[in-house]
Amino acid sequence: MTVVATFYQFVSLPDCTDLQKKLLSQGQHHAIKGTLLLAEEGLNATIAGSRQGMDAFLAFLQKDPRFKGLEIRESLAPSPPFERLKVKIKREIVTFDHPVADPTRQVGTYVEPHDWNQIICDPDTLVIDTRNDYEVSIGTFQSAQNPQTRSFREFPKYVQTHLDPQKHTRVAMFCTGGIRCEKASAYLLDQGFQQVYHLKGGILKYLEQIPAEESLWQGECFVFDERVAVRHGLEPGSYDMCQACGHPLDQTAQSAPQFEAGISCPACYDRLTPERRDRLRQRRLQQAQAHRASP
After folding, report:
1. Which helix (H) or strand (E) holds 206?
2. What is the DSSP code string of 137-158?
3. Distances (CA, A) of 220 to 77, 136, 233
């Protein structure tokens, strides 16, 4: 089995370039695959490897005092969900485009998974799913509001047009692993909202810790790797992914006439011209021929 680890940390990293080289070298040495994003505001990663390789890589990472106490979420996959290792330097580790959203300065109140049900069942609490619409479409918490965003950059506009700090005095937010809520909660506090809560460790920690019979989660949770989605206990879910647009696909979508493996699905079919579909078919054919020819 392959160990999949996800983690992030908001911390000052002025030495991103040097750190990039070290992490790439160590990751390759221990056969780690996946993606690590570095920015001056911190680190965000989803990586996979053997148990031995993962332990060695994480031990190296946490020798840096800035990453001591790093909260790491792990799950198992039957095969490596990534093809290679990428260590990238970005302007932000999660793109939001609002400098006032600074989690190193202020964040909302963390809520442990075992306390989350009580928070979101309070009728005075507005519960918001901060993820994108295609993620929400396959699973979310009961009664959660869907901002219907296509990217996290759109979340501030949703706040400005739909939320009022005088009316919505108690807001609870959640996302996949917690990182987006760090910035979202910092932004809401800056906009004058007083009681801002967010699920510590995100949906993944909730699904890991809360038994299915006690859970208020409905559906599956989209993840950004080849597993596509996970269930309670972080067991692999039932969805596949459109290789053309990245949209999660259930069995109904895969049986739809608009679905063509590697070419289109019901979510992107109408956006593709016949010429574009022909190019995608040709590329898929070339990839198949190259795969057959490889030793």
Report:
1. helix 202-209
2. TTEEETT-B----SSGGGHHHH
3. 16, 9, 11
Residue 2 half-sphere exposure, CB side, CA atoms within 13 Å? 21
- What's the pTM? 0.83
Q: Which residues are catalytic?
A: 175
Cβ contacts of 42 within 8 Å, gap of 6 or more:
8, 9, 10, 11, 12, 13, 93
Query: pLDDT for 116-170, tens place per residue?
Result: 999 999 999 999 999 999 999 999 998 899 999 999 999 999 999 999 999 999 9
Q: What is the pLDDT of residues 95-121, one digit of tens each?
A: 999 988 999 889 999 999 999 999 999
Whole-number Å distance between alpha carbons of 71 and 61: 12
Phi and psi, residue 235, nearest 5°:
-70, 145
Q: Measure the CA–CA gap between 293 and 295, rounded to whole angstroms.
A: 7
φ, ψ at 261 (rounded to 5°): -50, 125
